[in-house]
Amino acid sequence: MIGRRYAGTGLGLLHVVFLAMLSGCSSPAVPAGPAHVDTDDVAQFLDSYWRRPLAPQGVSPSQFTPLEAALDPTYCAACHLEQFRDWSGSRHAQAMGPGVLGQLMDTDGQARDEQQDCLRCHAPLAEQADSLAAALSKQNAATGASLHEQGVICAACHVRENRHFGPARRDGSAPKQGDHLPHGGWQASPAFTDSRFCESCHQFEADGYELPSVRGGRLRPEREVARKHLRGMEGQFLCRRGQAMPVLPHAGSAPSLARHPRPGDGAQRRQH
Description:
Elements: H1 2-6, H2 11-23, H3 42-49, H4 66-69, H5 73-76, H6 81-88, H7 98-104, H8 112-122, H9 126-136, H10 154-158, E1 159-160, E2 163-166, E3 187-188, H11 199-202, H12 212-216, H13 224-233
């Protein structure tokens, strides 16, 4: 179980490394741009934020330390230990389980489009796709879990092109231009407390995304699980569309993806 593998392993050392890295340099200022995105712009923000396939992070800012530029969730634990522990026991941390990974390892290393059928939700970062390609070509000599094996990691939801995003603080405040915070702080958006944030992976429209093998009706026996997975999620969502999320998505393991299906959804689609 991925959560157990991470919990309590080397986190104390990470704190020491983090402080040592930051002590020799000044923390970068918050990137230019508005700290908040208006609520009316949430849909537009999310359309850009979750456009697949996700773009690579690119070269990290020169002032970032290796820890600030890292995408591995264990590095996030240096400052966000509580959130890391929540994530470690969540479905997101287990998103790249043996079933998904086994089918991906059966693909050709250059079959990026085919791999995206799974990676787009189970390990969505471009760097995770690169990690899988390296593993398939036997070029990945990393010890421990490779990036693609770690599922929906922190950066999958919170980092785009080396810029960090998230909700405002609990008191409603957000970083200001000129603040000196690790990794340049973050850009606060109400999208992170809106149920639509999860929609691209947890809500399938009637004419929307499906696995090609499902759409074509030609399933290999081992892909029957994938068909049931898609049909089981159609029309099911964590909470009502456009409303605030009841809990943070990385806070423990949710017992079900189906909290409040939209009227007319789900049941009608599952008849197809």
